[in-house]
Design a protein that fits this description.
Elements lengths: L9 E5 L1 H14 L4 E2 L1 E2 L1 H5 L3 H11 L4 E3 L5 H4 L8 E3 L6 H10 L2 E4 L2 H9 L4 E7 L7 E2 L6 H4 L2 E7 L9 H13 L7 E3 L3 H4 L9 E2 L22 E13 L4 E2 L5 E2 L4 E6 L17 E4 L2 E6 L7 E4 L11 E4 L3 H8 L3 H6 L7
Parallel strand pairs: 2-11, 3-4, 4-5, 5-6, 6-7, 7-8, 7-9, 9-10
Antiparallel strand pairs: 1-12, 12-15, 12-19, 13-14, 15-18, 16-17, 17-18
Helix pairs in contact: 1-3
Bound molecules: pyridoxal-5'-phosphate.
């Protein structure tokens, strides 16, 4: 039987209505600004083809990726002028490619500005570094002729500490406000997901939420409004009885104290369920019953305790709770990592 006809034993479900709800919520919380969408890293691991139609239908018009390779999959869903590439142009080939498809580069340095203009120029976005010291042109560089000659669509900056109560937020805000007069532009943008929750003065013309579209809650203010989008489930592919003193998995880290029924779940660290999940009190669930993870997580398998749901057997499905704030606590991963690490075997 060709492998593509055999049913998958692990599933990533993307809740379309929750995704649409989250975009609309973030758009509303953006006040007079409209919300765009960060769709880099394959929509934070959840899949461009799963997420883009929903985001477009909800009303999103402005999309952000990091790399040029991420552009073609987007163009089956939106027009090129709706897409910006955050890493900008690093070579004349990239500049030529950008111009031929009509996607805007986010210019991040005087060098990139020069490269873009000398290769033919055209509409671009401009990133100003207001303190994160990652990508972006310094405020003092905005007067440079290479910057002044750009055709800037969106002037933007990025917050370093929006998920915290930090004095850095207000400092970045005021520096960005000061920069607005220094370069002609059509639109302006500062806030990521957490930045939207900092208040309407952070909104400018356009916001760039990513994490919270996909269910992440970077600040408590968003907890009530943002819904879970991703859920992970997998089939039990074998059950067995073990006796007191028997161990489970690599390095025999779990040793049974009593007779127990265990199940082997078709999911592992190759799917992004890293070993940190097995070191705390994380559990799978079935109809509200917790099924504790036993021993070390393997590449393709996780063994669970079926004591709370003894009728479960081969072919039954169990769920790994993927509510991001809770899952981050259980797994030791950040909410961002929990999404982007999800593997490629899910059906
Ligand atoms: C990834 C990214 C975003 C989205 O940030 P979230 O914290 O996921 O909302 C916005 N702007 C830039 C420049 C980014 O790199």
């Amino acid at each position: 039987m060709p492998p593509e006809t055999s049913p998958p034993t692990l599933k990533l479900n993307v809740g379309r209505s929750a995704l649409a709800h989250n975009w609309r919520t973030l758009d509303r919380l953006s006040g007079s600004a409209r919300a765009g969408a960060a769709v880099k890293a394959n929509c934070y691991g959840l899949g461009v083809d799963r997420c883009m139609p929903t985001l477009v239908e909800a009303g999103a018009r402005d999309f952000y990726v990091a790399h040029w390779q991420e552009v073609p999959p987007l163009l089956t869903h939106v027009a090129p002028e709706q897409v910006s590439v955050l890493h900008g142009v690093l070579s004349t080939q990239e500049a030529a490619c950008a111009r031929s498809i009509g996607v805007r580069p986010v210019i991040n340095s005087v060098t990139q500005a020069k490269l873009w203009s000398e290769s033919g120029g055209g509409a671009c976005d401009l990133m100003i570094d207001t303190g994160i010291n990652r990508l972006g042109v310094a405020a003092e560089e905005l007067a440079a002729s290479e910057i002044q000659s750009l055709d800037v669509h969106t002037l933007m900056s990025h917050l370093a500490c929006a998920d915290e109560q930090s004095t850095m937020n207000a400092r970045q805000l005021s520096l960005f406000q000061e920069c607005l007069g220094a370069v002609a532009h059509k639109d302006s943008s500062l806030a990521n997901s957490a930045g939207i929750a900092l208040g309407p003065e952070y909104g400018f013309g356009l916001t760039r939420p990513g994490l919270s579209l996909y269910g992440g809650v970077p600040r408590e203010e968003l907890a009530q409004d943002i819904r879970q989008v991703a859920s992970v489930s997998a089939a039990i592919i074998q059950t067995r009885m073990i006796e007191p003193g028997e161990s489970v998995g690599y390095n025999a880290k779990f040793v049974a104290k009593r007779d127990m029924k265990v199940g082997v779940v078709s999911l592992g660290y190759a799917d992004g369920i890293l070993r940190g999940w097995g070191e705390g009190n994380a559990a799978f669930e079935h109809e509200g019953q917790a099924l504790a993870i036993l021993g070390k997580i393997s590449m393709d398998m996780i063994v669970v305790d079926l004591s709370n749901a003894p009728p479960l057997t081969e072919g039954d499905w169990v769920e790994l709770p993927y509510h991001l704030p809770n899952a981050a606590q259980k797994s030791g991963l950040s909410q961002y990592e929990l999404l982007t690490i999800l593997g490629h075997r899910f059906g």
